[in-house]
Amino acid sequence: MAQREQIRTGERGVLAHFGHMDEEPMTITEGDGAYVRTDDDEEYLDFTSQLYCVNAGHSNDAITDAMAEQLDRIQYVSSAKDNDARSQLADTLTEVAPQPLTDVFFSISGSESNEAAIQIAREFQDASTVLTRWRSYHGGTYATAGITGDPAIRLPVESHAATTGNVKFLPPFGGADAAFDADSPEELTERSLAHLEYVIRNQGPDSIAALVTEIVGGSSGAFTAPPGYFEGVRELCDEYDILLIADEVITGFGRCGEWFGSQTEGIEPDMITFAKGVTSAYAPLAGVLMRSELGTALREDAMDIGQTFAGNPVACAAGNAALEEYDDHLIDNVRELSPALEERVRSLADHDVVCDVRGRGFHWAVEFADPETGELVFDPRVEDGYNPVADVLTRTREKGVLVGGGRPLIQIMLSPPFCVDEDDIETGVAALEESIEEVFE
Ligand code: PLP
């Protein structure tokens, strides 16, 4: 049996994350810009950026050359020592991030960054409760699964209370299962903030260490907050002495048209967690940007946290080169082409089965509901049931375009690399639109 078939049937090989591989897993062997190629020589326009990571596109010479050059000099330096590539990256990160964030703690993955941020917040605040949001995703490790709103991720660890205790959830801003039925964005802001203040007061402000939030929802559905919401959150966090942690694992590094999503909302979080786009996924690297008070506390209290591979020099060299590419032209490309992408994706809302289109910059979700009732088209948790959204994904792929499945799979995610052009945008969205028509109409 071919290895690929054995992997698919689960007999041997790579264990898939999140419990499953695609039904017909493709073997991607090469990439170039916004395109990937498979072992059977098929080419696909990659509108997923491979899990929202490869912002600079595949096979970017500036990044691979910088990595090769670093490998020639030295491949690894312990995180207890200094390293020039690592310091350079920290300098640039603190320049492009919202200004009060002066210190960087490097880690390896987004999950570990969120783990560190929660641990630092709990230690610094001497409080344990973390506020987070339903329909969010913050990671696949124990504690981060516990602050993830997606039940498929959270429920299996929820009974392990020692790792996930003291977490309270806030509602998302929209989608078919929106909690607040507001008549206007302003009313939604008002109601969401009133609800947050109610939770804070009743939970007891002194017991709350931090509020963790994506700025634009990630794989759980590209939710954008109504105008003024995040400013209000910042004010409430100041008033009640709660640390505001922005999980920018997806929204960092230009995906929303600014270096960080927080800047698109005009807010200054106390910590920003980042990963994916920092190296454009040329090497695993992540971290936590934080205010100087927190950095100082970490230095002085010497909280013993860290990981062997955190801030690896080759990964940092990739990060330095990726950040130059973003600065040089890639974030400009996102700004320039976002209106065209937004208009084209929003046009999908003309289809009756599409109940919501939302997002910002180069990160969009298209959610499906029954046109008559507005209810979800199906229950995505029913095992082995036919899922029309999965069918749309497959058909779009058969047309040569990769789009992503959101969690839960009632939505489709579009997050192209920043190197696409207007023709790519049309090709990508048109393939999705045709597939929606085939499946639903
Ligand atoms: N936070 C968000 C918003 C994410 O989208 C992800 C991963 O998709 C993570 C955290 C976890 O990052 P990682 O998979 O690198 O651990």
TrEMBL record:
Annotated organism of origin: Halococcus dombrowskii
Keyword presence, DNA damage: no
Keyword presence, Transport: no
Alphabetically ordered keywords of this record: Aminotransferase, Pyridoxal phosphate, Transferase
Record-stated family: Belongs to the class-III pyridoxal-phosphate-dependent aminotransferase family.
GO molecular function, one term: pyridoxal phosphate binding
PROSITE patterns (UniProt xref): AA_TRANSFER_CLASS_3
Source domain of life: Archaea
InterPro entries to which the protein is assigned, alphabetical: Aminotrans_3 (IPR005814), Aminotrans_3_PPA_site (IPR049704), PyrdxlP-dep_Trfase (IPR015424), PyrdxlP-dep_Trfase_major (IPR015421), PyrdxlP-dep_Trfase_small (IPR015422)
Protein name: Aminotransferase class III-fold pyridoxal phosphate-dependent enzyme
Assigned GO CC terms: cytosol
Pfam families in the cross-refs: Aminotran_3
